[in-house]
Write a structure and sequence with these properties.
6 helices, nuclease, DNA_rep_MutH/T2_RE_sf, alpha+beta, DNA binding, DNA-binding, ECO RV Endonuclease, Chain A, three-stranded mixed sheet, DNA mismatch repair protein MutH
DNA sequence: TGTTGATCATGC
DNA sequence: GCATGATCAACA
């Protein structure tokens, strides 16, 4: 596997991202000596890791943006044939304890979503992984309305957690941001509080962006492209 | 058949 | 277990 150095600035990062638009995952993988699995069943994060490596993101399990020196987070987004998201987007782990004093302003969700480089990629399972194509990169920052939408959902969900209602939260809570399990398996447990304020063990949860939200980002981008071309 | 809840791999 | 990267697949 070839190691690519980190992009020095935003322009360089965007040039690299643009350079793979239209190419297949196999072409990109081959160019940096990475092998392509038959499918994603046992390699769910493979596409994200591949693009990370190609663009020169510092790998690792640090709780930071992928390009921290540029203040940019990288997210690949599987889309269907008409460019609609096929999956929700994981954002960050939900803090179930020691969360007093955390505000929207200081939250991991706001930090991770403050600036995102979205890379749409064909994701239909009928298309062999190797020949799925990468789309145009979208450098995005939430507008005032989007930030308010996210903040509202985050506050509602965090309020429930702080009130000990974690076991009552389902994926149906939140319009654009939801909380769902995020763990290696059903045996994984972490601390939380119940409604009586007692410490309990529960499944770790994560914040996810619903498809409707990421679809809006893609559609806003297309609208902007069309506006500029008129 | 779309969503919700569950799960897969890896490093430390 | 947690944080990284996400998608799978059971079931309503």
């Amino acid at each position: 596997m070839k190691t690519i150095s980190a992009p020095k600035n935003e322009v360089e990062l965007m040039q690299r991202a643009l350079s793979i638009a239209g190419y297949t995952l196999a072409e990109i993988a081959n160019s940096i000596d990475v092998s392509v699995p038959c499918n994603l069943q046992r390699h769910k994060g493979w596409v994200g890791t591949l693009i990370e490596r190609y663009l020169g993101a510092d790998a690792g399990s640090k709780a930071q943006q992928d390009f921290a020196h540029l203040g940019i987070e990288l997210k690949t987004l599987p889309v269907n044939r008409v460019g609609y998201p096929l999956e929700t987007t994981f954002v960050s782990i939900a803090p179930l304890v020691a969360n007093h004093g955390i505000t929207w302003q200081t939250s991991h969700v706001r930090y991770k979503l403050s600036k995102v480089l979205w890379i749409p990629i064909e994701g239909e399972r009928s298309i062999p992984l190797a020949v799925r194509r990468v789309g145009m990169p979208i450098l995005w920052q939430p507008n005032a309305e989007q930030e308010q939408q996210l903040k509202n959902d985050w506050q509602e969900l965090m309020d429930m957690i702080v009130l000990g209602k974690i076991e009552h939260i389902t994926a149906r809570h939140g319009e654009y941001l939801q909380i769902r399990p995020k763990a290696a398996n059903g045996q994984a447990l972490t601390e939380a509080y119940n409604e009586s304020g007692e410490l309990i063990m529960t499944r770790p949860r994560g914040f996810y962006l619903k498809k409707q939200f990421t679809a809006q980002i893609l559609s806003d981008f297309l609208a902007e492209v069309h506006r500029v071309h008129r």
